């Protein structure tokens, strides 16, 4: 562990985690591509075909964003379809190594803990409840129903969590696994750590301005463990 990550973690009174990636593999047992196909089928049932670029896209959030831009009349229905699929996925999700321990230790060392996610609050809550993590997480700032335009890289979900925890961005650390997470954190004014769950993610996270990049949440856990309680 280097002094850089120790300073990032040790100097933060609030630690915010993205959900899918840093906390769990949300779609491990119910693949994102299957969820996207379900959303596409719901659109097709309404006589709507997304553009060619989204015809086979495996990311359901891109389909939701497209619906929000082009078919607002169908947005509530597509939100409901996606939420149901995300909850199903949450029930089969697999934990990210060391993530649960990091969440618990962050709370036990006096830090505010929040989840900031483009996924639905219903899915995040279901996962936290199943894994006995709800008691450690003070704030959930998830996708706002009917407003996909406010998903990250918008800084709004992070700023909402920071405000709910009574903190300020400069005292917070956001841990995410995507370029859009780093962009959102930087725009919100928080420190950032990029979690590279695959080596090919490292250049993108570094290029997006991550304060530090780790290939395991073990580094965050070690930083919390060595830093002791927040003063």
UniProtKB/TrEMBL annotation:
Q: Name the Gene Ontology biological process terms.
A: DNA repair
Would the keyword Hydrolase be found if you checked this record's keyword annotation? Answer: yes
- Cite the Pfam families for this sequence: Hydrolase
* Gene3D superfamilies, A to Z: HAD superfamily/HAD-like (3.40.50.1000)
Q: Which domain of life is it from?
A: Bacteria
Q: Which SUPFAM superfamilies match?
A: HAD-like
Which of UniProt's keywords are assigned here?
Answer: Hydrolase
Gene Ontology cellular component list? cytosol
> What Gene Ontology molecular function terms does this protein carry?
phosphoglycolate phosphatase activity
What is this protein identified as? Hydrolase
**Organism this protein belongs to:** Planobispora takensis
């Amino acid at each position: 562990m280097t002094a850089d990550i120790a300073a990032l973690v040790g100097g933060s009174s609030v630690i915010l985690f993205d959900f899918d990636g840093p906390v769990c593999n949300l779609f491990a047992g119910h693949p994102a591509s299957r969820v996207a196909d379900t959303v596409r089928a719901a659109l097709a049932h309404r006589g709507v075909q997304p553009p060619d670029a989204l015809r086979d896209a495996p990311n359901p959030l891109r389909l939701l964003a497209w619906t929000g831009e082009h078919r607002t009349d169908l947005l509530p229905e597509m939100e409901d379809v996606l939420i149901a699929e995300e909850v199903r996925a949450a029930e089969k999700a697999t934990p990210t190594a060391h993530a649960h321990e990091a969440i618990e230790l962050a709370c036990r060392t006096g830090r505010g803990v929040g989840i900031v996610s483009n996924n639905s609050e219903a899915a995040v809550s279901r996962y936290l409840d199943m894994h006995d993590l709800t008691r450690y997480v003070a704030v959930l700032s998830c996708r706002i129903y009917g407003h996909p335009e406010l998903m990250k890289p918008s800084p709004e979900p992070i700023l909402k969590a920071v405000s709910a925890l009574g903190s300020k961005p400069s005292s917070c650390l956001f841990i995410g696994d995507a370029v859009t997470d780093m962009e959102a954190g930087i725009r919100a004014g928080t420190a950032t750590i990029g979690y590279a769950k695959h080596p090919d993610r490292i250049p993108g996270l570094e290029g997006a301005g991550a304060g530090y990049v780790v290939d395991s949440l073990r580094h965050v856990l070690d930083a919390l463990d060595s830093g002791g309680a927040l003063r």
